[in-house]
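note to self: dont lose this again. the chain is below, predicted strucutre after it. 93 aa total, dont forget to put it in the shared folder this time
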Amino acid sequence: MRWKWRVKAKFFPADADIEALCAGNDMVLLPTDISATMLAIPAALPTAHSTGSDPCQRQNACCVAKYRLGLFKPQFTEPVGLRRDVNTPELYL
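---
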């Protein structure tokens, strides 16, 4: 996760989130400044369309891929023994 902070450090708070949406991400995770991001998204859409990168088309492709992989179905993890399974000694080698 260290790279994420490096990327966001090089952009203004909302710019990294706009770039992620234009690249095809269908949601913004951990925005630095949520209010700046919410204001910047509608302002950036006409600019993105005029430069030829259509974020809606890329996000649609991302959502179609997730649907084909079955990621729309609820996935549950059995909590019994979860800590034991996750914290195995092999992970600390």
